[in-house]
Amino acid sequence: MNDYSIVYFGNDWLGENRTSSHHIAQRLAISHKLLYVECPGLRMPKGNKRDIKRIFSKIGKCLSRPIRRGEQFWVYTLFQVPLHRFALIRRLNEKLILFSLKRVMKQLNISQPLLWFVAPHLSMIPGKLPARGVVYYCVDNYASMPDVDRQFVSFMDDEMTRKADLVFVASEPIFHNKIKLARELLLSPHGVDFHHFHQVVTSPLQAPDDIASIDKPIIGFWGLIENWVDLDLIAFLAQQQPTWHFVLIGHVAVKDNPCNDMHNVHFLGTKHFSELPGYACRFDVAILPYRLNEQVHSCNPIKLREYLATGKPVVSVRYPEVEKYHDVVAIADGYADFARKIAWYLENDSLELAERRVTRMRAESWDRRVQEILSAVNSKFGGIQ
């Protein structure tokens, strides 16, 4: 093990989606003593059963000791009142957070760690804990996310960017937004768990029953189904092509769903990361049906790489980062064009095209990406292997 520790501030370790936060922390913990701190989300809880259940779960976990997840890997849940715009609440949160972190770091014998943040709402922490440095790994335009206090999230994002010694960003639009704020800024696109998704090509996978029973062709998507997913596009495609079946995997977080009661649109709910290749083996085409809003303009979705690693054809709306993959992704302009691109793949996809998609992803594994990230960290802080 290296002679330093990392305190890594991420989202829920056992959350529904496997994010860059998980992939990077998991690999850092192979050679570094790592405390993974689960932080509350940016958005205000909505008061529904799901959010209330999560709040009580977090309260219970934050009162417990850190949970050991590996030889040098612990997970601790941080409690924070999600009312960031109120100065009194911010001061209370700061005191609670610093008290909790100092107590847990003492329990684990962690001193002078590298502080690693993947979200902006702990921007009060840098400078108030002893640390060898601060890394901010920014993967989204957080202020444009749904149900957040846009003005204050933007403030916290800027503050974290200024305070961090080294800032990584996942897309070029975010890079250009931060170039005047960051002390040192590096573009670090997402990676992919290549071998996990390449199973679709190399192994005879058995599809789960809920998708095995659906007629083909199957047009598939996985991820959180929030307002950035264009369900009007899905409804249009399903009406235009009643023999195509659309399978959407993930929590549905929208209220008004135009696809309800459509016989060829199937919402299968959340699935564990380990199950996704089994679902992908039934896909004929994978899709990125986003709304062209501010958040999507800045995004660099991991699922794009996951889809490509399965060898399946991919159709996407047009946004800056996907254009870098125009040679292996069909990029659609408008609803009718999206339908045409899917139809073309259903008629013309080939093993040669599938191999081209897979080959493109071999060089973009998370293992390689984390090595690149650590090389930059080593260069910045020195003595880090």
Approximate helicity band: 25-40%
The fraction of residues in strands falls at 15-25%
- Biggest β-sheet description: 8 strands, mixed
- What general outline do the C-alpha atoms trace? globular
Classify the fold: give the CATH topology of the largest domain: Rossmann fold
Q: What structural class results from the helix and strand content? A: alpha/beta
How are the strands of the biggest sheet laid out side by side? 3-4-2-1-5-6-7-8
Mean model confidence by pLDDT: 91
Count of distinct strands: 14
- Spell out the helices and strands N to C: EHEHEEHEEHEHEHHEHEEHEHHEEHHH
The CATH class label of the largest domain is: Alpha Beta
Structure report:
- This protein has 385 residues and is an alpha/beta fold.
- It has 2 domains: 5-191 and 365-381, 3-Layer(aba) Sandwich (Rossmann fold); 194-362, Rossmann fold, CATH 3.40.50.2000.
- 38% of the residues lie in helices and 17% in strands.
- The chain has helices at 20-28, 49-62, 87-107, 150-163, 172-178, 194-202, 209-212, 231-240, 276-280, 294-298, 302-309, 335-348, 351-362, 366-381; strands spanning 5-10, 33-38, 67-70, 73-77, 114-117, 133-138, 166-169, 185-187, 218-222, 245-249, 265-269, 285-288, 314-317, 330-332.
- The chain has an 8-stranded mixed β-sheet, sandwiched between helices.
- Helix 5 links the parallel strand 7 (166-169) and strand 8.
- Helix 6 (194-202) packs parallel to helix 11 and helix 8 packs across helix 12 (335-348).
- The relative contact order is 0.12.
- The model has no long low-confidence stretch (mean pLDDT 91).
